[in-house]
Amino acid sequence: MVAEAKSFLVEDARIIFRNFEGKEGQYNRKGERSFAVVLEQEVADALVADGWNVKYLRAQDEGEPETPYIQVSVNFNNRPPRVVMITSTSRTNLTEESIEVLDWAEIQHVDLIARGYDWEVNGKTGTKAYLKSLFVTIEEDELERKYGVNHKEDVDD
After folding, report:
1. DSSP one-letter code for 46
2. CB 84 within 8 A of CB 94
3. Which residues pair with 19 in a beta bridge?
4. What's the Cα-to-Cα distance from 22 to each of 69, 107, 131, 138, 151, rounded to whole Å?
């Protein structure tokens, strides 16, 4: 019997630390694409109990709780994720070459599924999150809405 693959769904997600380009930085090697998802405490507790690597943002104000989040890797090598960018006029499938647009996009809404990869190194074990599906609705400004792909001008005959 094959064990069911670990995964989790987050609807109306808040994503932080976006690096869809895979840009090298203080916390990232060049070419490693990732982002983080802020979690509700109950979801974080369940993921930790299942072996996922949940981290916490320090509270901004004294007495406030820390905010749980999980890092999600974006890898196009073996099982590429399905990434769809949604606007008022279109749905665009993003590829390895185009996904970096999400680093600077004004995001309105995000739904995602991450799948887990169980690892063991030097006696330590855990589950790393990899992106499976991501649907992102982009906030458009007035001109983007006016001149969108399906824009039809009024024509006088």
Report:
1. H
2. yes
3. 34
4. 19, 19, 14, 21, 34
**In whole numbers, what is the pLDDT of the chain averaged over residues?**
89
CB 156 within 8 A of CB 47: no
Q: Whose CA is closest to 88, among 149, 133, 135, 134?
A: 149
- Split into its structural domains, the chain has a count of 1
CA dihedral 91, 96, 36, 47 (to 10 degrees): 90
User: Residues 6 or more apart from 75 whose CB is under 8 A from it?
Assistant: 33, 81, 130, 131
Instruction: Tell me the sheet residues that pair with 86.
Output: 91, 137
Domain CATH number, residue 67: 2.40.50
- 1 band by pLDDT with thresholds 50, 70 and 90: very low
Give the count of beta carbons closer than 10 Å to the beta carbon of residue 98: 13
- Taking the model in full, what pTM does it have? 0.86
pLDDT digits (tens, 9 = 90+) for 23-36: 998 888 898 999 99
User: Which stretches of 28-149 are assigned E, i.e. beta strand?
Assistant: 33-38, 54-57, 67-74, 82-86, 91-94, 107-121, 124-138
Q: Which domain holds residue 134?
A: 7-141
